[in-house]
Amino acid sequence: MTTPRPSTTLSADEARRIALRAQGFVGTPDRRGGVRGVLRHLGAVQLDTISVLARSHELIPYARLGAVGRATVEDAYWKDTHAFEYWSHAACILPIEEWPHFAFRRRAYRGRPHWSHDLPDGTYDQVIKQLRTEGPLTATELGGAKRTSEWWDWSGTKIAVERALMYGEVVCVERRGWKRVYDLAERAIPGELLHDELDDRECLRRLVALAGQSLGVGTRADIADYHRLKADQVESVIADSGLVPVTVEGWAKPAWADPEALATPVRGRHRTTLLSPFDSLVWERARTERIFGFIHRLEAYVPKPKRVHGYFAMPVLSGGRLVGRVDPAREGATLVARQVTLDGPKAVSGVAQALVEAAGWVGCPEVRVERVDAPELREPLAREVARLLG
């Protein structure tokens, strides 16, 4: 397929600002839409087991809306059938109206073996029967999630219900104590959405268009990564997605942009906030480095002696740039900045503001700064934090 010649050239700064607005960090957010509006705007909110200040799916709307209540976040996702959980960028919360567009993935899972777990005869049918009879249940309530204490040693029941989830016969309707709560898709998904009628091409075209809108501007690899599509899948539909080819200064690869993003000037205030490492603004390392000149790596799974920035180092966004990192912890009523990386003295104000706002959100009236990569900036940072705390 021949790619049309780009008619628009963007500076690196313009591309950065378009990306920030597309992700909800420039301008005044539409608070009327709340958390559900954030979910629909982003198209996917990644889930993860790690909880430091809060879990990642709570940090995502907080980063854009400010101190929205944590119970409000959970209710927005799971009450009244506004979302479902499925495999997108990773395990993600997705807007319920996108259920039909993941038919291509459900078909792919049904069409080939996808893991080596053995499934005892009759277990799959028994799980479906039990959900039909008893209503929404966790894997434990279905008969047990594990055979032993090893995290990977799933029971036959857990294997069966996860397989049913991938096939689309079962849906995760909420997380309860971080456990998935499963129900039958026929009961959980609105009738007008409960179908696999769209062919693969239409599903892919929609997801590529959504990824482009959520990114504002991106390379083919950026767009593919958003919902973890294959390169050839993106290539097959991108010309029909509504996205337009552009050239971005300093980018080695061709790019595509949302035409609405190109047509609308980027105006408004920049958010200052801590970001989850799983935030869609920064979840792809190569893109983050290309746009912000910022190298980020989650070190939670790195042996402690080899960590550079800390267990759950959170990038700090301020003034439309990534200006540092904070590895936070909570000790009673104190938010502890165990390790802070600052991009020079100018970053002090933004990092202090992000720390104080996060502390207020999680109910910590005190903030303590422990280690700063530039020791001479530790006291200025601590003083600015104290000033903001009043």
User: What is the strand arrangement across the widest sheet?
Assistant: 11-12-13-14-15
Query: Distance N terminus to C terminus?
Result: 61 Å
- Tell me roughly what share of residues is in helical segments: 25-40%
Number of E-state strands: 15
SS field, number of helical segments: 16
Largest sheet, in brief, is:
5 strands, mixed
**Low confidence ranges:** none
Beta-strand percent range: 15-25%
Radius of gyration: 22 Å
pLDDT average, as an integer? 92
Overall 3D shape: globular
Class of secondary structure makeup? alpha+beta
What does this structure look like?
By secondary structure, the protein is of the alpha+beta class. The chain has 16 helices and 15 strands. The strands form 4 sheets. A 5-stranded mixed β-sheet has the order 11-12-13-14-15, sandwiched between helices. Strands 1-9-10-8 form a 4-stranded mixed β-sheet. Strand 9 and strand 10 (about 255) form a beta hairpin. The longest helix is centred in the middle third of the chain and has 16 residues, at about 200-215. It is globular and about 65 Å long. The chain starts with 7 loop residues before the first strand and ends with a helix.
Give me a quick take on this structure:
With 390 residues, the chain is of the alpha+beta class. It has 16 helices and 15 strands.
